[in-house]
Amino acid sequence: MASRDKRIFIAGAGGMVGTSIVRHLSADGYQNLLTPLSSEVDQTDQHQVTSFFREASPEIVILAAAKVGGISANNSYPADFIYRNLMIGANVINSAFESGVEKLIYLSSSCAYPKVSPQPIREENLLAGSLEATNAPYAITKIAGVKLCESYFRQHGANFYSLTPTNLYGPNDNFDLESSHVIPALIRKFNEAKLRGSESVEIWGSGEPRREFMHVDDLASAVVFALEQIEAADIFLQGVSHLNVGTGSDMTIRETAELISEIVGFRREIVLDPSRPDGMMQKLLDVSRLNAFGWQHSIEIRTGLKKVYDWYAAAARNLETEASATPR
Predict the structure, then answer these.
(1) What angle do CA 81, 301, 71 make, to 5 degrees?
(2) Beta strand pairing status for 167-169 and 282-283?
C-alpha cells in the first residue's frame, strides 16, 4: 500500500479524469499531490517534462493527461491527436523511469481495441485486429502507452502498468458540441432544446451502436484501488499488459439519448441522422480481472447521469448569471 506522504504526480490534473483522481486521493488521505496544469508544464515538451521530474522528484505518477474528443474531433484533427498523445506518453513515461519513479499507472482507452472484437472485450484482444477508422490515430497512441509501460517492465523491471477504462462521463467534462463525447453532447443538446422549446433534437448515427458508460468517479476509485493494491508484476504475470476498468453492462446510443432526455425533461422528438458515422458497433469490456482483485464499480448509469446533468445545469446557469452581470 502506498504511503500517504508519497509525492504523487497526477498528469492531467486539470481535466475531467484528473480532477476526479485528485479528489479521491485527497479524500483518501494523500496530501503530497503534484498537480501542475498544462500551462505550467507542457507534457508534449520533453525539456519541460524532464525539468519538472528533476525539480519535483515525484515518487508515483498517474498519467491521465491526453488530448481527447468525440468522433467529429478525431476525424477533423487526426494529426493533433496522434502527435500530442504520443509525445505526452513518451515524455512522461520515460522521464518517470529515468528519475526512478516507484510506480506509474497509465490510463489507456477502450478505443484502443480492434473495431471488431469478441464481446465483452478481454485484455488479450488488444492488437488482434484493425482499429476503428474514426479514432485510429488516438487509439494508436493509447496502444503505444500501454506497450511503453509493458516494455519498461520487461526490460527494466519498472513498476509501470496500464488501466483501460471504458467510455467515461462526469463533471468537468468537455461540453463543446464540436469536440465532445456522446454523453456531454447529448446533455447539452437536450438542455438547450428544452430551454428553447424546440420540437426535436438530432443525434448522430443510427442509434444502434452499444456503449458501456462509466462515471469518472468510478474510474478514480479504481485508480486509487490499483495504486494501493496492484503491482505491475500482478498484471504481467497473467500474460496481459493492462487491466480493463468498466461496469460490465452497456446500452444503445438511442437508449442513452432517451434516458438523458428523460433526466433533462425534454419530452419531444429524437431524430436520428444515419448519414453520420456510428463508430464501433459495440465496445463492452470484460472487467473480470479487475473484479477478481477486489474492485467493483458503484455508480449506476441513471444515478450518474442525473448527477452530471445537475452539475452541468448549475454551471450553465452560473455562466449566464456572470454574462448578464458583465458591463457591456
Answers:
(1) 25
(2) unpaired
Of 260, 235, 2, the residue nearest 108 (C-alpha): 235
Is the per-residue pLDDT at 326 higher than 50?
Answer: yes
Query: Where do the domains of the chain lie?
Result: 8-324
- Number of Cβ atoms within 10 Å of the Cβ of 275: 8
Cα separation of 171 and 65, whole Å? 16
Give φ, ψ of 197 to 5 degrees: 75, 30
Pick from 36, 42, 80: nearest CA to 58: 36
Reported as a single tens digit per residue, the pLDDT across 36-95 is 988 999 999 999 999 999 999 999 999 999 988 777 777 888 999 999 999 999 999 999
CA distance 124 to 209: 23
d(CA 20, CA 17): 5
User: Is residue 160 classed as helix, strand or coil in its secondary structure?
Assistant: strand
- Residue 315, helix vs strand vs coil: helix
Largest interatomic CA distance in the chain: 64
Q: Are 238 and 284 in contact (CB under 8 A)?
A: no
3-state helix, strand, coil in the chain (%, to 5): 50, 15, 35
SS3 track for 102-152: CEEEEECCHHHCCCCCCCCECHHHCCCCCCCHHHHHHHHHHHHHHHHHHHH
Q: At what angle do helices 182-196 and 301-325 cross, to 10 degrees?
A: 60
Which of 138, 152, 309, 312 is the catalytic position?
Answer: 138
Q: So what CATH class is 8-324?
A: alpha beta
Give the predicted TM-score (pTM) of the model: 0.92
Share of the chain above pLDDT 70, in %: 96
Q: How many CA atoms lie within 13 A of 50 on its CB side?
A: 5
Does 83 qualify as catalytic in the annotation?
Answer: no
| Residue closest to 169 by CA, chosen among 72, 300, 77 | 300
Specify the pLDDT at position 204. 87
Peptide bond into 120 cis (omega under 30): yes
